[in-house]
Amino acid sequence: MGHGGDVIQELTTDHREVDDLFNQFDDAAPGSPDRKRLVDAITIELVRHSVAEEMHLYPAVREHLEGGEALADKELADHESVERLLKNLEVLDVGDSVFDATVRELRDEVTGHVDDEENNLFTQLRHHVHQQVLDRLGEQVRQAKKTAPTRPHPAAPSTPPANKALAPGLGLVDRARDYVTGRGQ
């Protein structure tokens, strides 16, 4: 969940972990319980990652980068698309005819978002934001992921201060549900 380093290193490592989970999904037999388990793991990682970005990274983007408002708004729109797909997957059975197609659509959305972040946003952050700020953001993101929700909540606020107030409570409820159901274990 937490890897160390500044915010760019932390989030890039998250991206590689999600890539690995998608690759494991591809290697699992169609319709198998492993595929459902892997989609649950992908969901958990993407939701925690997104919530942490929304709480800490995107406010910093707005504050520190020229054109930061538009950049942050675009990233939030990407998150909304991903969250809708995750919510759709949550109710699909692994044997449903649209399950694999929805995972492919999710992967395409995530890959596009990751490419944009790593090749555009992160480059701008590295060039325009002081290393101490990036280090502090890395720690804030790691802390946020510890209490973040693990399930999609499309109706939840995605900007401060409301998301910072609600996310830990939603996270507590999600982790309790995960514990009871064995999800993500």
Short précis:
The protein is mainly α and 185 residues long.
Describe the structure.
It is globular, with a radius of gyration of 16 Å. It is mainly alpha-helical. It is built from six helices and no strands.
**Helix percentage range:** over 70%
Shape: globular
Share of residues in strands: under 5%
Unreliable segments (pLDDT under 50, ≥5 consecutive)?
A: none
Number of strands: 0
Give average pLDDT, whole number. Answer: 95
Oligomer: single chain
Structural class: mainly alpha
Order of helices and strands: HHHHHH
Quickly count the helices. 6
Q: Gap between N and C termini, in Å?
A: 14 Å
Please give the radius of gyration in angstroms.
16 Å
Largest sheet: none
Produce the secondary structure layout.
Blueprint: H1 7-27, H2 33-64, H3 68-91, H4 99-128, H5 131-147, H6 162-181
Helix pairs in contact: 1-2, 1-4, 1-5, 2-3, 2-5, 3-4
Task: Please describe the structure with a list of short key phrases separated by commas or semicolons.
single chain; mainly alpha; 6 helices; 0% strand; globular
